[in-house]
C-alpha cells in the first residue's frame, strides 16, 4: 500500500470538509463535540485518502458515511461520563 498523499487530493478533500461537517450538523450529529473529529483535521483526511488510494471523491463519501454511522448508532452517547460503568458493569 502506497501511503504517499497526493497534495491535490488532500487540498480537494480539505476544501470539502466544511460542507461534510455542515451536512453532519444538518442531520443532527454533534460534529463539534465528536472526539473522532477533534483529531488533527489533516491527519484525519490523510487516513481517508490512504484508504481510498488518494481518491478524494471516495474519501469524502466514506467520511460522510462514517458521520452518518456515528449518528445512527449514537456513538457520542458512549462518551458521556459514567457510561463505562453502565456498559461494563460486573
Structure description:
The structure is a single chain. Helix content is 59%, strand content 0%. The protein has 90 residues and is mainly alpha-helical. Helix 1 crosses helix 2 and helix 1 packs parallel to helix 3.
Principal-axes geometry comes out as elongated
Oligomer type: single chain
- Portion in beta strands: under 5%
Major sheet size, sense and barrel closure = none
Structural class: mainly alpha
Instruction: Count the E strands.
Output: 0
Distance between the termini: 42 Å
Portion in helices: 55-70%
Q: In DSSP terms, counting alpha (H) and pi (I) runs of 4 or more, how many helices?
A: 4
Which series of helices and strands comes N to C?
Answer: HHHH
Radius of gyration: 15 Å
Ranges where pLDDT stays below 50 over 5 or more residues in a row are: none
Task: Summarize this structure as a short list of keywords or feature phrases.
4 helices, 90 residues, mainly alpha
Summarize the helices and strands and which ones pair or pack.
Layout lengths: L6 H20 L14 H11 L4 H17 L10 H5 L3
Summarize this structure briefly:
The chain is 59% helix and 0% strand.
Amino acid at each position: 500500500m502506497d501511503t504517499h498523499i497526493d497534495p491535490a487530493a488532500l487540498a480537494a478533500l480539505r476544501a470539502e470538509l466544511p460542507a461534510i461537517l455542515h451536512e453532519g450538523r444538518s442531520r443532527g450529529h454533534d460534529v463539534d463535540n465528536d472526539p473522532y473529529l477533534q483529531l488533527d483535521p489533516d491527519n484525519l483526511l490523510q487516513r481517508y485518502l490512504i484508504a481510498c488510494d488518494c481518491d478524494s471523491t471516495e474519501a469524502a463519501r466514506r467520511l460522510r458515511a462514517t458521520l452518518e454511522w456515528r449518528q445512527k448508532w449514537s456513538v457520542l452517547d458512549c462518551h458521556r461520563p459514567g457510561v463505562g460503568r453502565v456498559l461494563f458493569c460486573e
